[in-house]
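Exercise 7b. Backbone tokens:
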């Protein structure tokens, strides 16, 4: 991705946050210089993968296949004294797909906080055995109601949430308007706990065509 695309995507996400009066922590607006000025704190955040994240999953077509995220809190999986939970905010455009992927460690709820309709689809193909050893199964829950996972597109509206079981391949996209999501989950590890159905990457190579507006979480650490 070009840095200019990343910058524009973050600016759009910030407008969404303002529209929903969603307050953010101070480090959400840090510049590269701010990360350097708060090097120890920045490194602590980076080690826990906290901050901005923009990806096109290596597609080169961010509008078709991509995602903007901001991780507000997280721990280190199996780390002594670490938080075992995570919270993220996600910003999904119309027709913009997050491709099929599964998590072996993480059980998550995806909640529509505002905007349009979120479409979620599951497939039994490529299921991953959870680290807990539990079976993947074929049932999901939408706000506590058991629903067959496969063979349909699940459409969620503002206020609704879906529980994604460990190991189950899922994808999602916006249908009729941009969607503002929250994710609450067990500890999140985007380096090691994303298993894509296709041979694609979680992170994008960045072409530096302009200066970074907000550094991504893996660009922090006071560097």
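Sequence design result:
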């Amino acid at each position: 991705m070009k840095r200019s695309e990343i910058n524009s995507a973050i600016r759009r996400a910030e407008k969404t946050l303002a529209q929903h009066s969603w307050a953010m922590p101070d480090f959400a607006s840090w510049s590269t210089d701010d990360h350097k000025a708060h090097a120890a704190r920045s490194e602590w955040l980076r080690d826990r993968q906290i901050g901005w994240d923009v990806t096109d999953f290596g597609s080169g077509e961010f509008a078709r296949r991509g995602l903007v995220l901001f991780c507000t809190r997280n721990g280190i999986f199996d780390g002594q004294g670490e938080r075992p939970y995570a919270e993220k905010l996600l910003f999904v455009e119309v027709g913009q797909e997050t491709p099929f992927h599964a998590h072996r460690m993480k059980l998550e709820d995806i909640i529509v906080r505002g905007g349009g309709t979120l479409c979620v689809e599951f497939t039994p193909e490529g299921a991953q055995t959870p680290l807990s050893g539990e079976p993947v199964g074929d049932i999901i829950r939408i706000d506590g109601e058991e629903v067959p996972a496969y063979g349909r597109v699940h459409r969620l509206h503002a206020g609704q949430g879906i529980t994604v079981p460990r190991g189950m391949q899922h994808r999602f996209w916006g249908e009729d308007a941009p969607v503002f999501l929250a994710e609450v989950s067990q500890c999140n590890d985007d380096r090691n706990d994303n298993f894509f159905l296709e041979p694609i990457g979680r992170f994008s190579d960045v072409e530096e065509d302009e200066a970074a507006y907000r550094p991504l979480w893996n660009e922090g650490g006071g560097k």
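Instructor comment: Residues 56 and 66 are 4 Å apart (CA to CA). The mean pLDDT is 96.
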